[in-house]
Amino acid sequence: MIPITVTKETYAEPVAACSAVGIFEGEDAKNLPEDIPSGVIDELKGLMQKKQFTGKLKELRSFTLDSFHHALVVVGLGKRQEYTLERMRKAVAKAAIFARSVKAPSLAFNFHLKDVDPFSLTTRAQEATVAALLALYRFDKYKTEGKERARMKKLVLFAQARDRPAIAEGARTAQPIAEAVMNARDMGNTPANILGPADFEEYARKRAKSNRLRFSVLSTRDLKRKGMDLLVAVGKASKEGPRMIKIEYIPSRKTRGMKKIALVGKGVTFDSGGLNIKPTQWMDYMKSDMCGGADVVEVVVAAKRLGLPHHITGIIPLAENVIGGDAMRPGDVVKGYGGKTVEIMNTDAEGRLILADAVAWAEDAKPDLIIDIATLTGSSIGHLGYEGSPVLGTAEKALEVLEQAGLDTHERIWKMPIWKEFEELIKSDIADLRNLSKPTGREAGVITGGLFMKQFIKKTPWIHIDIGNMSWFPEARDYIPKQASGWGVRLLILFLERFK
Ligand SMILES: [Zn+2]
Q1: Which of 10, 113, 187, 247 qualifies as a FRET site for 468, CA 20 to 30 Å off?
Q2: How far is the CA of 325 from the centre of ligand 1 (A)?
Q3: Could you tell me the distance, in angstroms and rounded to a whole number, from the CA of residue 212 to the centre of ligand 1?
Q4: What are the strands, taking DSSP E only, across 281-345?
Q5: DSSP code of 474?
Q6: Distance of CA 349 from the midpoint of ligand 1 (Å)
Q7: Near ion ligand 1, which residues have CB within 5 Å?
Q8: For residue 337, how far is its CA from the centre of ligand 1 (angstroms)?
Q9: Residues that are catalytic
Q10: Among 35, 30, 98, which residue's Cα sits nearest to residue 70?
Q11: What distance in angstroms lies between residue 298's CA and the mean position of ligand 1's atoms?
Q12: Is there a contact between 213 and 300 (Cβ–Cβ < 8 Å)?
């Protein structure tokens, strides 16, 4: 993790190789910090008169000063009345990506000093730091040439003397959050020949151990003994058998509002589609079909490091959905944990199968709330593009908290209806359920995918988050790189912080 320091705002003596300062659209350059050299202010005024710089969001101008090794960067923040946490994150990301492009080893910025209602200075500092760290993320572990050599070595947050403790606190809490997102990205980006079910288990075990969290595994044999045949059916054609892992955080102090929350994450380490094999253009990135599971591991670790107030149990069913003599077939009928039978209509709708066993097992521990997060459907892209995740569930109160957490982290969610009629679409002619909607499989894909899990939960309030669209970005966007995004980690952390 890049070290972070908090220091007084100064431009007379550079504290970083690159210093970034924000200016609102249409505002006078004389509003910039006093000790910015007058040469820069004059030049900027000139540019603004000629409308060559207006302060529009993410507009960037760099100035070279004698006293700086690299640059003083002025970044547009857009209109003052439209400034939000997300706009601040975008401005920070813009500065960070610029600093990296000029190989600056350190970056200082002041964007968090501008008010954003109703957020505290600590929250603003935290979110600015998270955005900088996430914007600087790079996955080049498997390159032997062209690795980024000049890595950023220091981030500096500007502060007035009296604000230092608040800003330092934000910089401190930012680190476990950013680390959780970046680890989840690493896992999503790691190829399936390197991260199979056994490697995932090993990784999670190490994370649990180094953070002193409880950890346990149900092996393939355990799954069979318990009657978790859906998970077994999905994973049995792979050389690395299916398994279910559990990583658990119990707060050291029991507080009054403490809830027991089960987080269930889909962990398909590679999804070929099975016998209903996927077309070529949809298969290469299926190494990322475990992103929900990665999110869950990292959120539980972050919960411990941040000391969140709830008892959180992460459950991840792990399997590789491939083809072999032992593979499940379309038309097979398989019994899930708890006894319900499922007719497998399509072997590529495997996520809901493994999650059904997982949520049913999660309920045994009598949680107050179950949340599952999964790269469940391609239809999520059809619904919301790359702007937010469709969700559904029965936990009304928790959904409201999640929705607000989504707005504040900009990992937004959109609630889908769970009308009774949708459940008719997943009734099988010969078994209790089918894993694809009728008649064609295209009807209400996101909703029926989620409602399938509901059939395995007896009474616990539940939420399903479909990150099929958001887990993998075809193009980079501000502080989110191309490919695995780590989407959902920040959303769940803030939810757990706020849920009462
Ligand atoms: Zn699939």
Answers
A1: 247
A2: 19
A3: 34
A4: 311-321, 333-335, 341-343
A5: S
A6: 5
A7: 271, 348, 350
A8: 20
A9: 278, 352
A10: 98
A11: 23
A12: yes
Report the distance separating Cα 95 and Cα 70, nearest Å: 13
Give 145's pLDDT tier (boundaries 50, 70, 90): confident
Q: Which of 284, 287, 359, 297 is nearest to 320 (CA)?
A: 287
Tokens of 61: 């101008």
- The radius of gyration computed from the CA coordinates of the chain, to the nearest angstrom, equals 24
Its pTM surpasses 0.90: yes
Q: How confident is the model at residue 188 (pLDDT cuts 50, 70, 90)?
A: very high
Domains and CATH numbers, the chain: 4-160 (3.40.220.10), 179-498 (3.40.630.10)
Q: How far is the CA of 417 from the centre of ligand 1 (A)?
A: 23
pLDDT, residue 455, reads 98
The secondary structure element, H or E, covering residue 41 is helix 38-49
Q: In the Cβ-directed half-sphere of 293, how many Cα atoms lie within 13 Å? A: 32
**How far apart are alpha carbons 409 and 28 in whole angstroms?**
30
Mean pLDDT computed over every residue of the chain: 96
The CA-to-CA distance between both ends of the chain, in Å, stands at: 31
Letter for the amino acid at 266?
K
Q: Are 302 and 180 in contact (CB under 8 A)?
A: yes
Q: What was the pLDDT predicted at 204?
A: 98
- Counting other chains too, the contacts that 378-382 makes at CB distance below 8 Å and 24 or more residues apart are 378/282, 378/445, 378/468, 379/442, 379/445, 379/446, 379/449, 379/468, 380/446, 380/466, 380/467, 380/468, 380/469, 380/470, 381/468, 381/469, 382/445
Q: Name 280's Cβ contacts closer than 8 Å, sequence gap at least 6.
A: none
How confident is the model at residue 76, as a pLDDT? 97
Give CA separation, 237 vs 228, 325, 375, 497, in Å: 16, 7, 21, 40
CA 232 – ligand 1 centroid, Å: 15
Question: Computed from CA positions of residues 447, 451, 452, 453, in that sequence, does the dihedral angle turn out positive or negative?
Answer: positive
Stretch 206-211: mean pLDDT = 98
Do residues 374 and 358 lie in contact, with contact meaning Cβ atoms separated by under 8 Å?
A: no
In tens, the pLDDT along 51-84 reads 999 999 999 999 987 767 779 999 999 999 999 9
Cα 114 to chain centroid, rounded: 26
- Residue 50: which pLDDT band, with cuts at 50, 70 and 90? very high
205 CA to centre of ligand 1 in angstroms? 26
Tokens of residue 446, six digits = 């996101």
Distances from the Cα of 190 to the Cα of 139, 142, 346, 483, 489, angstroms: 9, 9, 27, 11, 18
Q: Which two tokens stand for residue 382?
A: 């059809």
Expressed in angstroms and rounded, the spacing between residue 121 Cα and the centre of ligand 1 is: 43
Which amino acid belongs to residue 134? L
